[in-house]
Design brief:
Elements (H helix, E strand, L loop, with lengths): L1 H11 L5 E5 L5 H9 L4 E4 L2 H10 L5 E4 L8 H4 L5 E5 L2 H13 L4 E7 L12 H10 L6 E8 L7 H22 L8 E4 L5 H6 L4 E4 L1 H4 L6
Parallel strand pairs: 1-2, 1-8, 2-3, 3-4, 4-5, 5-6, 6-7
The structure holds pyridoxal-5'-phosphate.
The site of pyridoxal-5'-phosphate (PLP) has 13 residues, from strand 8 and helix 9.
């Protein structure tokens, strides 16, 4: 099933949109099944779970961190993480920079933007976004590669579409204002199982799919 799901999704999305398989709560066997049909990008939202999976699974997997990241846990993922989607403060970015420097690497990061109506979703508003970008210029061991956002959890697809459109507008604005010279500012991570088709129509370059690939998650 997992293999079929991935093949179906890959065939139905544009070739320049990247698929992150969100494997949180799922066992290694499920990840290996996806791996065997060529999937290499996987997303996790808990540091401990991510580290355990990194240690026991093939080393050519690119691990993305997509959850809320606590400063004191950055050190555990800094040696290997491929992309952090959820940077929502300068303080966190500074700590990622420091831990990346210790590892002798540059860690690609996305800034998480608050676009949803819900209070509970993390992320920066437009003012905070600009401020963070302007204050981050001296950080040499992180690369701001784009933005990530989550739309409101609603059946009203007009709301969802407008939120994605707003995120794309913020992305384009930041690109021309701050990242004109930087070809690495190229990633717009938006779209989950319930809304990825709309996200792609609105300019997503990276979708994060969990349940569509692996089935519903069971939390214990
Ligand atoms: C869990 C999660 C996803 C995947 O959700 P699905 O609805 O199962 O596709 C995507 N992004 C983030 C940030 C998540 O936490």
């Amino acid at each position: 099933m997992i293999a079929e799901n991935i093949k179906h999704i890959i065939n139905s999305i544009p070739s320049d949109v990247q698929l992150v398989a969100v494997s949180k709560t799922k066992p290694n066997a499920d990840i290996i099944e996806a791996y065997h049909v060529g999937q290499r990008l996987f997303g996790e939202n808990k540091v401990q779970e991510l580290v355990a999976k990194y240690e026991s699974l093939p080393k050519d997997i690119q691990w993305h961190f997509i959850g809320h990241l606590q400063s004191n846990k950055v050190k555990y993922i800094a040696p290997f993480v491929s992309l952090i989607h959820s940077v929502d403060s300068l303080k966190l970015l500074q700590i990622i920079n420091k831990e990346a420097e210790k590892c002798g690497r540059t860690i690609p990061c996305l800034l998480q933007v608050h676009i949803a109506k819900e209070e509970t979703k993390f992320g920066l508003d437009q003012t905070e976004l600009n401020q963070l970008i302007e204050e981050s210029g001296n950080l040499k061991n992180v690369c701001i590669c784009g933005f990530m956002g989550m739309a409101t959890n609603t059946d009203d697809m007009n709301i969802v579409r407008n939120e994605f459109r707003e995120l794309k507008r913020l992305f384009d604005t930041a690109k021309s204002k701050y990242f004109n010279q930087s070809s690495s500012f190229n990633t717009l991570s938006m779209g989950m199982s319930g809304d990825y088709k709309i996200a792609i129509e609105e300019g997503s370059t990276m979708i994060r799919l969990g349940s569509t690939i692996f089935g519903e998650r069971i939390y214990h």
